[in-house]
What does this fold into?
Amino acid sequence: MTQTIRYFLFILFAFFLNTGITVASEADSTSNESGHNTKFEAGKFVIEHVSDAYEWHIATFGETHISVPLPIILYSSNHGWNFFMSSRFHHGHEAYQNFRIQHDGEHEGKIVELDEKGEIIGLPIGLSITKTVAGIFVSVIVLLAIFLSIAKSAKQRANMAPKGLQNLFEPIILFIRDEVAKPAIGEKKFEKFMPFLLTAFFFILINNLLGLIPVFPFGSNVTGNIAVTLVLALFTFFITSINGNKHYWKEIYNPDVPWWLKFPIPLMPIVELSGVITKPFVLMVRLFANMLAGHMIVTVFVSLIFIFNSLMGAEAGLGVSVVSIAFSVFIVLLDVLVSFIQAYVFTLLSALYFGMATSEHH
Amino acid sequence: MGFVTPDYGTIFWMLIIFGIVLIILKKFAWGPILKALKDREKSISDALGSAEKARKEVAGLKASNDQIIAEARKEKDIILKEARDIKDKIVAEAKIQANAEAQKSIEYAKQQIESEKAAAINDIKKQVAELSVMIAEKVIKKQLENPKDQEKLVQDLLTDLKLK
It folds into this structure.
């Protein structure tokens, strides 16, 4: 089983390598570029590391950037659909086909559409495979490889003791079933929600953990991206709303409170409705903020080395690096714990919301 | 790209990918895995249940065996007791009978002895009488050899007769 996964990852890796890691040598760097080398901007460094990007940056040696280009997919009313690799932008330094990555101003970090004179005329609709989306693809491949193989061995070894990967993940699946879904939703209805709870738990867990591995094709800050957590929370919201029974909706629109709280100003319904929105919103923000903060702290500790290096010389940088690395290791280990906790909390709260939506009485 | 403004492109891809993954995993992973877990739990609890049942059955068999053995033992005791009683009875009866028999034969022997004794005594008496008569005859014969003595005897006899 593990061999299949290793094989999978190797193929994946080879695929990315073949599409061409662009090694761009910028010998003809301009004057403002060379100034960048001596001055270390910690804020920018940290932000760049945790934010989404149009290419997957791997390493920089001097002025040579090594990164994996990702597909750019754009639509604008003027130029129609555009598909090209992000390597055309030359790490964001050049414009390509009327498009450019904006580095400052209102649309910082976004792709803007230009007219013939090079003036910004607007933002195209961007459906690009960014670093985050590519990270989602990677984690989904890992997720599918793990659980399809477990399903296969579960079918083959029916009524036998679990083995290998199956043995590793079955206790977690059982934990989600017996300690999360059953108590939160109830013995009768929990089975309906199991696929979402398990998928959400393992999707979050695997993304959290892969995000901690700083080597390509992992390390993409997927669960620390608010769009990703927004979609996860939306799923919870829609599943809760669709499965909400009469009792659930009655409690929202016509709760058992004195009439003057409902008429003429529907005070309680407004409070209850805002609660319906707040619940998934909190899910979204909690996961996003936790994972983003974890990544940021690690990067901040690492960047401390360079701050001291540029402020007090190489010796200070070297001295601080010992402390920094120790702290970084500690934070990464803490993040491993946080990865599990956040995946668990998201799943548990989703299950609780499902339980509230389907419960028959108080 | 700002941190807190979600990028719609990422939302779009995430919706599609997560939706597809959810469907694939639901159909091909969670279904079989959860079913396998349920089946295994059921088979384990069934096996435990039947083991318990078998254990109870064995215990029941043992109890009934014990009962049978106890009953058999009781019956054996009863039979033995009866046999002993019968033996005692037979022995006692035999003793009584033997006693009676012995008594009877003793009685008979006694009777026999008595009658033999009586016969013997009678015989002896007869012989004694005959002997005494003979002796008396001889004595008388001797005493009455002279006529004087005869006279005297007659005289004595006559005096005796008179007296009477």
Q: What stands out?
A: Chain A has two domains: 71-128, 132-358. Residues 132-358 of chain A form one domain. Confidence is low (pLDDT under 50) at residues 12-37 of chain A.
